[in-house]
Amino acid sequence: MNQATLELTAPNAGTAAFQANPGATAAEATGFDIGWDHAHHGLVPPPELLLEGTPIGQGWRAGRAVFGRRTLPTGRATRQWLALRTGAWRQGLPFEGQQVTAHYLGQLHTEHCPVLRRPLGGAAGQADAAVIERLNPEAGYAAGNLAVMSQAAAQARAGVTVLEALRRATRAQLSGEAVQGLDAAAWWRLAALRAFATPLPFHEAARLPLAVLPPNRVRLLNAAQGLQALVTRQFMAPGWAARTRALAQLLPAHTLRQDFNLFVGALAPRVLEAGTEPRALRRALEDAWLLERVQRRWQHFVLSLGETATEVLLEAAAAQGLAGVRTLHHAPTAATEGWALPAAAASLQPASPRAAARRGVPRSAAVHGPRPMAQP
Fold first, then answer.
1. Which residues have CB under 8 Å from 69's CB, separation 6+?
2. 218-220 and 326-328 beta bridge pairing
3. C-alpha to C-alpha distances, 356 to 31, 106, 333, 346, nearest whole angstrom
C-alpha cells in the first residue's frame, strides 16, 4: 500500500472523509467523500463514476489505498445511504449528512407503500420497488423531509403540488374513475404527504383530511396537521376514550370542548368497526378522515380553535404525555434545518414563537415550541 502520493489532509467541516485536494470545490469534496465511503464499506460506485479524474473515482481509489480489505460491515440501509448520496450528488441536490445517516434511513423502513397500500419489495425500477423520496421537492435530502414509498407512487407525484394533488383527488372522487392511474383516496394520501413538509396557511392546512398518518421521522410543518395526527393516534391503543376526554379538558372554552367531542363522536364508530389489528385500525382511521361528517366536525372545531390555541394545545398535550409517542419541541429555525429551501419557500415559515415543525412518527413525534423539550 503506497500512501506517499496522496495529499491527505484533515477533513474540513461538512466532509466525511479525507480530501486528496485541499483546494477542491464543495461538489468535488462531496464526490470525494462519497467515493471514500464506498471504499470504506467495501462497495463499488457506478462504473461511469469511476473514470479517471472524477471526484467519486478519486475518493474511491484513495479509500481503497487506505482501507484495503479492512472494510466496515454493509447492510441494506448503508447501500441505500450511499445510493441516495450518489443520486443527490449527480443531480446537484443538497444532502444533509449530519442527521441523514444509514441508521436514520433504516428507521424509515416500511413494508407497505403509504400511498398505494401495496407491499413493497420489488426489484429496482419496478412499480412496487421501495424508494426514498423527498416530500417537499423544493428542499434537499434532509431529516424530516424523507419517506419511503413505491416507485409507482413516486412517479405519480413527480411535479405535483399540494394544490394539484387536491384537484386530482376531487376530480377522481366526483367521476369515480382513476386520474393519472390513481384513485381518489390515493390522491388524498399524496396530498397529505406533500403537505406535511410544505408550510401552508392555517386555514388551508385545517381543511386537509389526514388521509395518511405521518410516516416515521417525517416532520409536520403545519399546526393543524400536527393536531390531526395527535388526536388520531389516541385511537390506536386501548383507553382512547379516557385520553380524548383528557385532551378535551385542555381546551380553553366549553364550546370548544363540545365541538371536539362531536368530532370524536364522528371518528369513533370507525375505530369500533375496525377492531384491534394494528394495520386494519390504522387504515380505518385514515379512511375515516375522508368521510364528509368527520371533515365537517373537524373543520368546525379546529377553525374555531385557531392557530395560536392549536399550538398551545399541542404543547400542553405533549407535556402531559397525551401524544402517545416521544415528543420534541423544535425552535423555529430548526424546523427545516438542512433542508436548503429556496428563500421564497422559507419565508412561508410561521414567524410566531410557537409556530414550527412537528415530526409525526410512530416512535418519536416532534412538536415545536419556544424551547426544546426533552424526550420522555
1. 42
2. unpaired
3. 33, 26, 8, 12
5: amino acid identity, one letter: T
Domain C-terminal end among 75, 93, 111 = 93
Among residues 306, 150, 325, 154, which one has the least CA distance to residue 232?
A: 325
Cβ-count burial 140-151 (b if 16+ within 10 Å, e if not): bbbbbbbbbbbb
What residues are paired with 327 via a beta bridge?
365
> Which of 309, 341, 325 is closest to 373 using CA atoms?
325
79 shares its domain with 213: no
Count the neighbouring beta carbons within 10 Å of the beta carbon of residue 364. 17
- Structural domain that includes position 354: 199-366
pLDDT digits (tens, 9 = 90+) for 145-165: 999 999 999 999 999 999 999
Structure confidence at residue 23 (pLDDT)? 66
Residues 6+ apart with CB under 8 A from 10: 18
**Per-residue model confidence as pLDDT tens digits over 262-301:** 999 999 998 889 888 999 999 999 999 999 999 999 999 9
Tell me if 179 is assigned to some domain: no
Determine, yes or no, domain membership for 249: yes
Q: What's the number of domains the chain is made of?
A: 2
- Which residues does the chain have with pLDDT short of 50? 1-14, 16-19, 347-348, 350-376
Residues 6+ apart with CB under 8 A from 261: 248
29, three cell numbers: 469534496
| Nearest C-alpha neighbor of 136 from the set 341, 359, 314, 324 | 341
Q: Residue 221 falls within a domain, yes or no? A: yes
Domain boundary among 78, 93, 108: 93
Query: CA–CA separation, 41 vs 97, rounded Å?
Result: 17
